[in-house]
Write a structure and sequence with these properties.
Number of helices: 10
Oligomer: single chain
Largest sheet: 9 strands, mixed
Shape: globular
Strand order of the largest sheet: 5-4-1-8-9-10-11-12-13
Structural class: alpha/beta
Distance between the termini: 42 Å
């Protein structure tokens, strides 16, 4: 049985690096690298958890296509239980094309695809009941679960005594608050990046964002802030800030998923919130040094050495 279930978005990413602009018309642009990787706030987190030595099962949808075969086979090769990864009868595998800028930032061209077909009926409750943590990954791009269905699922997960963590995949949208709010009372750790959290709340003020999440029931807000580190705030307690590691950034794709994996691994190991967040920062920083969501992290020993020895921002 697995300690962690990752539920939600499974994506095949195509990374192109470095991209300074899109050629006009049918002109050819020459770049250095193109890479295909397993991504998504459920799949990417599962891959990194497996690298950290955590037993993990993943639950989601892929299409009956070569990208879906790649995602499934790649995860299985990492020792991830993919029995909960089912095939959609009519949608392609969710995919993104990511032109990575020289500074590591990237816009995304995304097809929701089979992620839209994931519903309550696809959840293997026998696996969930035996897990310690369920990571809800991909809120806002899961039309079959977003809103009241997700709240029902997470309420049942909590009734089983399983810890719930949550991450988003979103751009600004008018219905975001209405969609998310029913689920927050059943979320122990909500872990968006600060930009997504700002879009959700309609404010760039971190204290206001934290209060909004707490007022709607979230047990602890964990806001990743790129080079500014991470904010951790348990409901009713003082905010904790952890500084980022100093690395040369190649590609920021998957850094949030890597953070989630490290944070969850730290919680499972009994670490304090600050220590777990630092492990998450180490994982995210390592991923940022390579191309693709699966870059950077080798194993737990490597991440622990990085956490101990690598300099952080002053």
């Amino acid at each position: 049985m697995s300690d962690v279930i990752t539920l939600g978005a499974h994506i095949g990413d195509v990374h192109a690096w470095p991209v300074e602009g899109i050629p006009t018309g049918q002109q050819l642009g020459i770049i250095e690298k193109i890479k295909l990787s397993v991504a998504g706030t459920a799949a990417g987190t599962a891959v990194d958890l497996a690298k950290l030595g955590v037993s993990v099962s993943t639950v989601g949808k892929v299409g009956d296509d070569s990208i879906g075969q790649f995602v499934t086979a790649s995860m299985a090769a990492r020792g991830i239980d993919v029995s909960g990864l089912t095939v959609s009868a009519h949608s392609q595998t969710s995919s993104s094309v990511l032109p990575i800028r020289p500074d590591g930032s990237r816009p995304a061209l995304h097809v929701i695809g089979a992620n839209a077909d994931l519903t309550e009926d696809d959840i293997p409750w026998d696996l969930v009941a035996q897990a310690k943590v369920l990571h809800m990954g991909g809120v806002f791009i899961l039309p079959g679960l977003d809103g009241k269905p997700m709240a029902r699922v997470l309420e049942r997960v909590k009734s089983l005594g399983v810890t719930v963590t949550m991450d988003f995949l979103m751009s600004p949208r008018d219905d975001a608050q209405e969609m998310l709010a029913p689920s927050l009372p059943f979320v122990d750790y909500v872990m968006p990046n600060i930009e997504e959290a700002g879009w959700l709340v309609g404010s760039e003020d971190r204290a206001e964002i934290i209060q909004w999440l707490h007022d709607r029931g979230a047990g602890c807000s964990v806001l990743t802030m790129g080079g500014d580190g991470v904010s951790i705030a348990e409901k009713g307690r003082q905010e904790i800030l952890e500084t980022a590691f100093d690395v040369d950034v190649v590609d920021t794709t998957g850094c949030g998923d890597a953070f989630s994996s490290g944070f969850i691994a730290g919680l499972l190991a009994g670490e304090s919130l600050g220590e777990a967040a630092t492990l998450g920062l180490a994982c995210g920083s390592l991923v940022a040094t390579g191309l693709g969501s699966d870059a950077g992290i080798v194993d737990r020993a490597q991440v622990e050495a990085f956490r101990r020895e690598h300099p952080r921002h002053s």
